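New to this. Please check both lines:
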Amino acid sequence: MNKANKSGKTAGKAASAKPGKLALHTMKGGKGTLVKSPSKLAVTKTGAFKPLVKPAAKPAAKPIPLKAAPPAADDAPVIALNLPKAKLSPAMSSYFKKCQEKLGFVPNVLVAYAFDIAKLETFVAMYNNLMLGESGLSKLEREMIAVAVSSQNRCYYCLTAHGAAVRQYSRDPLLGEHMVMNYRVARLSKRQRAMLDFAVKLTASPGSVEEGDRERLRRAGFTDRDIWDISAIAGFFNMSNRMASATDMRPNTMYHRQAR
């Protein structure tokens, strides 16, 4: 048998070798060497065999970290009315400074009222008395009334500012969301539910409030002084909601990210 025939037979054996087995591969000059047969072979147009090469697997994409973007500034101008600012009285100047130190900003409702110092001082005095003064209602309960009333009136400013206050006092962001959307879905105590039902009824249909409504509050554990406070807070925020909506008052951007 001539060398050409031997070479052909040897090449055929190498091609027919089982994948993964050692096969004799013919080299130039007739010498052979043992090589490992590829696991898979493909035939080219010329009839030669070549290994099938799998494309390299792409590396898994790294997950994009979910980072909340800071809220866009939404509080300029503060109101839609062009009212020149008055010079603050010493008392109000000190109060604004205190707000800046404690909160990191001056609430825009105060900035809005600052065109008339008498109105500003009256507003601040009434607010502080109702929301921070002595009462049988906790500060959280007072803020809950503010939000339930504001939700009924769909007041953007008060829902944002006092929704943040509910989250802070309760340390429960979920409660804040419930109160803003619909207090009836929140897991409230019977006392809290009776309080909010009364405040919302006083907001939506004040002419329908009757003795039975007050009696339900008494059975829930509220005193007559408490009923006065619930009513006063509901009345105050009904007024504030209407002023905020009438002037397109914008809440401070900082409220959106508080206590979340």
Notes: The first strand starts at residue 22 and ends at 26.
